[in-house]
Design goal:
alpha/beta; 8-stranded mixed beta sheet; 7-stranded mixed beta sheet; 11 helices; 15 strands; about 30% helix; about 25% strand; elongated; disordered C terminus
Length: about 350
């Protein structure tokens, strides 16, 4: 069921939600949290689809905040709120409110969202892109117990990690960190099976993938060993090698779905390690609402402390028609001797 409201208010939206629930035969509220998404029109569809899919595991009220940029000065002065309400099969296992804020109202989104939050329920805020430098001090971020960003969507993902570290507050997390959960679990399990002192490690992956940096910083921080960060063609994170006194432990994923785990004294094993969709990442983050101390320690470790392997530099070959430098120097001497 969908309801469109034009030039409305938060009070009218709440009334429409109650009416919509009664119309679909679900007058009681069975949702466990409020998920607020701050996005734009370009990315709204993908973000809402991921949130709707994740709500099947975590029934929630999804509030999408879309700030509409006005072109003319007069339109920017006018404040207007349009809303779209989705209940029932159109909104997964919860209900969805899409807010479009026009004009001056876009600068006061928190005053619109606050009356729509579920009472006595946690609030999670997600920026699929264009997250503020300090999420906890953002007007909307201050309403949430959990704040989710995604450095992968930033223009300079690796530089964005330093921004996240500088502004970290308990409750902050990042989907770039969530993407490496299966890798961290697999590597920890490998060390449990073959306990040995790790001397060094190498993480291989795409050059602008912040998940690779986070995994390298996690290994360096937890193991206290030098970690090299090397680049590959991807997709994403492709391999991790941990060097121990008894041999190497290698987790290699070349195709983005199936990985091979190699350990000394054991046969190579194929393990499922596929790249996950945004809905799966979001559902994982919604399972825990307490501060992630491991993420805090990792992101504050610092990218600059990793050992970067420089790209090989190919020497410039001289053109076939160019004589060698030694021949050029010898030519004037030969001419002088001839005279």
């Amino acid at each position: 069921m969908k309801i469109d409201l034009t030039e409305t208010t938060s009070s009218k939206i709440n009334q429409a939600l109650v009416s919509a629930r009664r119309a679909v035969g679900a007058p009681a509220i069975g949702m466990v949290l409020t998920l607020v998404i701050v996005t734009d029109e370009e990315n709204a569809y993908d973000a809402l689809k991921a949130a709707s899919d994740s709500s099947r595991e975590h029934p929630s009220r999804i509030i999408a905040v879309i700030k509409r940029v006005s072109r003319s000065p007069r339109a920017r002065r006018d404040a207007r709120l349009d809303a779209e309400i989705r209940v029932g099969s159109d909104s997964g296992s919860g209900e969805t409110v899409v807010l479009r804020l026009h004009g001056e109202l876009a600068n006061h989104a928190q005053s619109v969202v606050l009356p729509l939050l579920l009472p006595d329920a946690p609030v999670v805020l997600w920026w699929p892109q264009d997250a503020p430098a300090d999420p906890a001090k953002d007007a909307l971020g201050a309403l949430a117990q959990r704040r989710i960003t995604d450095t992968y969507s930033a223009e300079h993902p690796i530089d964005e990690l330093a921004v996240r570290a500088a502004s970290y507050q308990p409750g902050d997390t990042d989907l770039a960190w969530t993407r490496i959960t299966p890798w961290r679990s697999m590597l920890a399990a490998a060390l449990d099976q073959q306990p040995a002192e790790v001397i060094s490690a190498t993480v291989e992956g795409e050059s602008d993938n912040p998940s690779c940096e986070l995994l390298a910083m996690w290994l360096a921080d937890r193991l206290g060993v030098p970690v090299q960060r090397t680049t590959s063609g991807g997709p994403g994170l492709t391999a991790v090698r941990m060097t121990t006194k008894s041999g190497d432990i290698v987790l290699d994923r070349a195709d983005g779905s199936l990985a091979t785990l190699c350990m000394v004294g054991q046969p190579d094993r194929a393990v499922a390690l596929k790249r996950r969709e945004t809905a799966e990442l979001l559902a994982e983050e919604l399972r825990r609402l307490d501060p992630d101390n491991i993420y805090e320690s990792t992101v504050k470790f610092g990218v600059e402390r990793l050992e970067k392997v420089a790209e090989p530099v190919t020497a410039k070959k001289a053109a076939p028609s160019d004589p060698p430098a030694a021949a050029k120097k010898a030519a004037p001497a030969k001419k002088a001797a001839a005279k």
